[in-house]
Design goal:
With about 290 residues, this protein is of the alpha/beta class. The protein has a five-stranded parallel β-sheet with strand order 2-1-3-4-5, with helices on both faces. Strands 6-7-8 form a three-stranded mixed β-sheet. It is about 45% helix and about 15% strand. The protein is globular. It contains twelve helices and eight strands.
Length: about 290
């Protein structure tokens, strides 16, 4: 049994904490809004959570919230002890992750950026994919807890590499989602049967994003899988990572999600981008 702290209990953090506890680990949580997981003990702050933990997972929303829980007077670094393994599983900017990794190194603390993919269902079922940056020789204590929350651990290089890959991945997924919705709109304008078109697109080109896009277009998910606001944030971080490069697709997709946020859809599922203009005719059912 490992003592684990989870700081941040959004969609991903709640699933991770619940699965860690279900696997027999000693889990303490902290969230800005208390009571998200009343069945688990809650620390008074991030520092207290870190002080009693062998492994700390931070799963906050963005750079600002991450910086606060790490560097605040009651932050993780204020409580972390020598030997504690520190993990950021949030999707953050490259600049902030680089700074955070350097601050941990200055204190001799083991740090990994380990953003996740797999969505709400992956978090709920313990089938996330961990996208890792850091020392490839991971401490045994960390490898002992990862099976409780993930089905795959993919290492991309030194600290910061996991974040870089996650931003690339999210940019591609957002482009795919937006393009799927545009294809459905084209099919509607052409007078095609949208049930037939949707099923065919899920089959070819297929893939998990096509399946998700089709399902979400038919029935907007509740609860959401991933918000338009989070997508816009991740795309903006991706653009900053690649500033100055000619990226017309990324720029177009970022503009689309930024528009969704500006029009008040930040808290809706990111599939809302496919319904911003002229939604397709009613679709009877999502079928693969």
């Amino acid at each position: 049994m490992t003592k684990v702290a989870v700081v941040g209990l959004g969609i991903m953090g709640r699933g991770m904490a619940a699965n860690l506890a279900a696997s027999g680990h000693d889990v303490v949580v902290w969230n800005r809004t208390p009571g998200r997981l009343p069945e688990l003990p809650e620390a008074a702050g991030p520092a207290q959570a870190a002080a009693g933990a062998e492994v700390v997972f931070e799963v906050t929303a963005d750079d600002a919230s991450s910086r606060q829980v790490w560097l605040g007077a009651d932050g993780i670094l204020a409580g972390a002890r020598p030997g504690t393994v520190l993990v950021s599983s949030a999707t953050l900017s490259v600049e902030w992750v680089s700074e955070l990794a350097a601050r941990c190194a200055e204190r001799g603390l083991s740090f990994y950026d380990m953003p996740v993919t797999g969505g709400a269902e992956g978090a709920r079922t313990g089938n996330l994919v961990m996208l890792v940056g850091g020392d490839p020789d991971r401490p045994a204590v960390l490898d002992g807890v990862l099976p409780a929350i993930s089905r795959q651990v993919s290492h991309f290089g030194p600290a910061g590499a996991g974040t870089r890959f996650k931003l690339v991945l999210n940019a591609l997924q957002a482009a795919h989602l937006a393009a799927f919705g545009e294809a459905i709109s084209m099919a509607a304008a052409a007078g095609l049967d949208l049930d037939q078109v949707g099923r065919a697109l899920v089959e070819r080109p297929g893939g998990v994003i096509s399946q998700m896009a089709w399902s979400n277009l038919v029935t907007p998910p509740e609860p959401i899988n991933f918000s338009a606001g989070w997508a816009a944030k991740d795309l903006s971080y991706a653009r900053r990572m690649d500033a100055g490069a000619h990226r017309p697709v990324l720029d177009a997709v970022l503009s689309l999600f930024s528009r969704a946020v500006a029009e008040g859809h930040a808290q809706e599922d990111w599939s809302i981008v496919n319904r911003l203009d002229s939604p397709p005719a009613p679709i009877s059912a999502a079928r693969s």
